[in-house]
Design brief:
2,3-Dihydroxybiphenyl 1,2-Dioxygenase, domain 1, alpha/beta, 2 helices, 4-stranded mixed β-sheet
């Protein structure tokens, strides 16, 4: 059987400059720019790779979930930086765009938004 040496996820974007600014400036991740894309350094040592794709189509699923201690504070801070949150009927989101799973006993509190390429990203607070 093979032995995996490392693992990372990846997704495409249509504008490397906008992606770099968003993931480093807006979200505060350490980003390394290479000649083939951006390596996003995640908390606890994981990475994601964002690569340019001329015929990019935004992912219809969440490409990155960022776990936070206090979701309301995270949503407020990101909103001040210009992030717009997606509102859903199922699961229902409140006026801030947060699906309140903790109080309903149905998982985390989570809020979704899109990166400049239209890919879905979320911030979520896990039940304690």
């Amino acid at each position: 059987m093979y032995k995996t040496q490392a693992a990372f996820g990846s997704f495409s974007v249509d504008d490397m400059g906008k992606a770099e600014k968003f993931y480093s400036g807006t979200l505060g991740l350490k980003v390394d720019k290479g000649n083939r894309g951006l390596r996003l350094h995640l908390p606890n040592g994981g990475t994601m790779f964002a690569y340019p794709k001329p015929d990019h189509r935004p992912a219809t699923f969440t490409v990155l979930n960022l776990v936070v201690d206090r979701i309301d504070e995270a949503v407020d801070e990101l909103a001040k930086k210009g992030v717009s949150f997606v509102h859903y009927e199922n699961p229902p989101t409140d006026k801030k765009g947060i699906a309140r799973g903790i109080s309903a006993g149905q998982g985390p509190d989570i809020a979704w938004f899109k990166d400049p390429a239209g890919n879905f990203v979320s911030v979520l607070q896990e039940p304690s």
